[in-house]
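Revision sheet: structure tokens.
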Amino acid sequence: MSRNGSGRSRIAGREWVLWLLTVGPVVAVFLLVPDPDWLTLCSAVIGITSVLLIAKGWVLGEFLTAAFTGFYGAVAAFNGFYGEVISAFAITLPLSVLSIIAWIRHPFPESGEVEVGGRIPKKQIVLLLVMTPLIAVSFFFLLRSLGTVNAEIGTASVALNAAAAFMKIARNPYFPLVYGVNDLVLITLWVLASLSDSSNIPMVACFLGFLISDIYAWISWIQMKARQKQTREREESGRIPGTEDTQ
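Predicted:
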């Protein structure tokens, strides 16, 4: 592995600090609430860890996302959030599998990272803009018929999750921002759930951690895109990445 890639194949010190600052409050809140739910804690820790690895552009993060989906879907089912259950198993999990396939097929050479995608084609953008509202409306009536708690919030989450997952498959560097908006929606959802059951408070801390991690992921992907562009330019000019460090 080249010197350019070796540093990015490890988790940096600042990323360990970020992980501790986001997971730590979740664990602390979990230990303080009465009758804590261990499934909720596992879901939160796996989920936040997956975002950190995705911020690195590592496909391992997508595998952890798939694991988080299963845990989170179970927690949502216990709370009657059928929108989140449907979103998890009908949208997030299948699209995570597609992301795994897409990321494995598009590695950036000698870096351990996925190759950052370019602009999403206009036809796909139009399709996304058309399908997202249709998915939202369809799920809203489905959730209402199922007697889902806070169906309006669940509908917004389903739509945002679908849009973000599509952008992640395309390896668009702005997908973490869409997930960040969804984090705000889910914070609202779990705050309302915590008013009636304090064991749900760790999920509020979880999605606060997600929000911070997604902002970091967005910054990381913008930097990764610029770095990969510079690497390509050096290679095209006949310079080997890393040789300038030895001169």
